[in-house]
Amino acid sequence: MHGTLEPPALEIGGLSFSYSGKPVLDDVGFAIARGEFLVLLGPNGAGKTTLFSLVTRLYDRRVGTIRIDGHDVRAEPRRALARLGVVFQQPTLDLDLTVRQNLAYHAALHGMPRRLARARIEEQLDRVGMAGSIRDRVRTLSGGQRRRVEIARALIHAPRLLLLDEPTVGLDIASRRGIVEHVHRLSAEDGVAVLWATHLIDEVHDSDTVVVLDRGRIKAHGSVALVSAQARATSIGAAFEALTGMAA
Amino acid sequence: MTYLRCFWGVVWRELLRFVHQRGRFIAALVRPLVWLIVFAAGFRMALGVAITPPYQTYILYEVYIVPGLIGMVQLFNGMQSSLSMVYDREMGSMRVLLVSPLPRGFLLVAKLVAGTLVSIVQVYAFLLIASLYGIRLPTDGWLLILPALFLTGLMVGSLGLLLSSFIKQLENFAGVMNFVIFPMFFLSSALYPIWRLRESSPLIARIAELNPFTHAVEMIRFALYGQLNVEATGIVLATTAVLLGLAILGYNPARGMMARKGAAAE
Predict the structure, then answer these.
(1) Per-residue model confidence (pLDDT) at position B179
(2) Based on the domain organization, do A182 and A211 belong to the same domain?
(3) CA atoms within 13 A on the CB side of B145
(4) What is the CATH number of the domain that holds A50?
(5) By C-alpha distance, which of A62, A38, A36, A43 is closest to A51?
(6) Which of A69, A129, A175, B81 could anchor a disulfide with A160, C-beta 3.0 to 4.6 Å?
(7) Residues A223 and A145 grouped into a single domain
(8) Distance (Å) from the alpha carbon of B59 to chain A's nearest alpha carbon
(9) Is the ipTM of this complex over 0.90?
C-alpha cells in the first residue's frame, strides 16, 4: 500500500451514508497521521455523530472505506476496534460502580490481563489527576471529573486513535479548558492521533488540523492557517462562519 | 483467554449492578411471594389438583404453582435486563460494550449469561423464603433444577434481547408488559394445569400448549422432582436458539435495527 511508511491512524475514503433516502454523509474522505490532532468542526446536524458511529462500527450500511491503523473496519473489525479509544458524547459510566470498577470493566472488554489492566488504570487516572478518586462511586463525581475518567478509560488499552464526540458539552469553562489542554498534550507526548468533533471554535489550537463538515460534506481541510486563508478570513472562527453560514 | 476475561468482566459488572439495585431485588422477591401467599391461599379451596406427573401424590396448590413462580421470577428478570439494554442504548453505555473488539455475538451471549446468573440468584432467594413459609420441596430438587433454571434464563433473556433490538424507546416498554409478560405468564401452565384450562376453554389450553413458557415451567417442574421432561427441554432449547439467532441478527451492524436507530438519533 504505502511501502514501508506506517499507515495513518485513521483513513476515511469516499464515505457516504444515507438515512431513508436522505444523504447524511456525502463522499467524505480524510486521514489522520500518528500524533496529529484533527478537529472535526461542524454545526449540529452536520453528520459528525453519524461519522463517529460508522468509525466505531455501531452501524455499517455505507459506501466507502474506513481504516484504523491500516485495518479495515469492516474486513478486520477486531484489529481495527482494538486500536481505537472512544469518548462518546453522552456520559457512559455506570453511576453506581466505582471509578476502578468502571475502568476494569472496560479493560475486560478488551481482554486485558488483570495485572496489566490495574497498572494501566492507575497510570491513566494519575495523568488526568483522578487517581485519588479511584474508589469513589461515579455518582459522587462532578461532570468534569466524569469526563476525565472517560478519557482515562479510552486510553487504558493504548489505542492508536482517540475519538472524542463533543467531549466538553455541558461542562464549565475551567473543566473544558483542562480537557482540551490534556488531550492536546496526549497527542503531542504519546503520539496518539486524535479526532475531536466540536462546534466550539475556541477549542481549536493553531497547531491543529481542521476539517469543516457541513450538511454531510467537507467544506475545507487543512491547517488552521490554510483553512482561514482559503476562506479569506482573518481567523478560523470567521472561516467557519463563512463556510457554514453559522455563527461560531 | 481474552474471551474468558471479557466474559467475566461482563458477568462481574452485571452482578455489581444487581447488588446496587436493592429495589429491583426486593421487587423480584415480593412479586412471586404475593402470588404464593395471597393468591394461592385463596385458591387452595377452590382448586383441587389431581395427581399428574411428576407428582406422585395429591399436592397443595401452593406446591403446584412454585415452578410457575420460578418461571415468573426469571421472566421478569429477562424483561428487566432487556429494559436495561434499551436504557443502556439510550444512555450510551451499550456503545461501550459494542465498541469492544470481540465479536458482537459473543458480547451479547456474555450479557445474556450474566443476566441469567442474576435471575438464578433471585430464584434461590425466592425458594428460601418459600421454604421458610412452609412449602415443602424435594431436597435434591434444589440442585436438580439448576440446569433447567439456566436454560429458562437463557430463553427469556434471548426474548428480552430480541425485543430490545426492536424497541426504539424506553416508553414503549409498557407495551412489553401488556403484550409479552402477561400473556406469556397467564396463558401457560404456571397457574393451572393444562387439563384444567381445557375444561373451561380448549382454545386457551391449545395456546398454552404452544407457549414456550409453558414448556420452561414444565421443565422446571419435572426437574424439581428429579425427572427430565425431554419434550419440554427440547422445545426450550429450540426456542432459545431461534430467539438468540434473531437477536444477534438484530444487533448486527450491517443488517440489524441499530443502523436505522443510530441514524435516527443524529
Answers:
(1) 84
(2) yes
(3) 28
(4) 3.40.50.300
(5) A62
(6) A69
(7) no
(8) 44
(9) no
Say yes or no: A66 and A112 in one domain. Answer: no
CA distance A165 to A40: 9
Nearest to B89 by CA among B162, B169, B163: B169
- Among residues A85, A52, A89, the alpha carbon closest in space to that of A171 is found at A89
Domain membership of residue A89 (yes or no) is no
Cell numbers of B215, please? Answer: 414448556
User: Which residues span the domain enclosing B115?
Assistant: 2-265
Give the pLDDT confidence of A35-88 residue by residue, as tens digits.
Answer: 999 999 999 889 998 999 899 988 777 889 999 999 999 999 999 999 999 999
Residue A168 lies in a domain: yes
In 3D space, the residue among B245, B243, B239 whose CA is nearest the CA of residue B216 turns out to be B239
Query: Using a CB-CB distance cutoff of 8 angstroms, which residues of chain B are in contact with residue A105?
Result: 9-10, 12-13, 96
Same domain, A116 and A168: no
- At which of A136, A158, A180 does a domain end? A158
A44 and A2 both lie in a single domain: yes
Pick A109's closest partner by Cβ from B21, B92, B100: B100
d(CA B17, CA A101): 11
Domains of chain B: total: 1
Considering the domain architecture, whether residues A173 and A154 belong to the same structural domain is answered as no
Tens digit of pLDDT at every position of chain B (266 positions)? 889 999 999 999 989 988 888 888 888 899 899 988 888 877 765 566 667 778 877 788 888 899 999 999 999 999 888 878 777 777 677 788 888 899 888 998 999 999 999 999 999 999 999 999 988 889 999 999 999 999 999 999 999 988 888 776 666 667 777 788 889 999 999 988 888 888 889 999 999 999 999 999 999 999 999 999 999 999 999 999 999 999 888 887 665 545 444 444 43
Interchain pair B262, A97: CB under 8 A: no
CA-to-CA separations, B47 to A177, B39, B61, in angstroms, rounded: 71, 12, 7
Which of A107, A142, A158 is the last residue in one of the domains?
A158
Number of domains in chain A: 2
Length, in residues, of chain B: 266
The DSSP letter of residue A141 is: S
Which of chain B's residues have a Cβ under 8 Å away from the Cβ of A86?
Answer: 95, 99
What is the DSSP track for chain B?
-HHHHHHHHHHHHHHHHHHH-HHHHHHHHHHHHHIIIIIHHHHHHH------TT-SS---HHHHHHHHHHHHHHHHHHHHHHHHHHHHHHHTHHHHHHTSSS-HHHHHHHHHHHHHHHHHHHHHHHHHHHHHHT----TTHHHHTHHHHHHHHHHHHHHHHHHHHH--SGGGHHHHIIIIIHHHHHTSTTTS-HHHHHHH-HHHHHHHHH-HHHHHHHHHHHHHTT---HHHHHHHHHHHHHHHHHHHHHT-TTTSHHHHHHHHH-
Taking a C-beta distance cutoff of 8 angstroms, is the pair A237, A246 a contact? no
Range of the domain at A6: 1-83+161-248
